[in-house]
Design a protein that fits this description.
There is one protein chain. By secondary structure, the chain is an alpha+beta fold. The chain has one domain: Alpha-Beta Plaits (2-Layer Sandwich). The radius of gyration is 10 Å and the shape is globular. The termini are close together. The relative contact order is 0.38. The structure holds iron/sulfur cluster (SF4).
């Protein structure tokens, strides 16, 4: 599973990070770090919840 990060849509709400800080990395200003995220099988549930929590739809899930 992979998370496609649309950095241009991120508004810095940090909800993804609040759900799964070990998966979603934020920069110093609270925006998601650019670059897609490869998710380990054990982290898929947390990654899913984090991606779905983004109000800007900046995080797409690719299976
Ligand atoms: S929840 Fe969405 S808008 Fe907020 S930091 Fe994460 S990617 Fe950005």
């Amino acid at each position: 599973m992979r998370i496609i990060v649309h950095r241009d849509k991120c508004q810095g709400h940090a909800r993804c990070w609040a759900m799964a800080p070990h998966i979603f990395e934020l920069d110093d200003e609270g925006y998601i770090v650019a670059g897609d995220i490869d998710v380990a099988p054990d982290d898929e549930k947390d990654a899913w919840r984090g991606a779905k929590s983004c109000p800007e739809r900046a995080l797409d899930i690719e299976k």
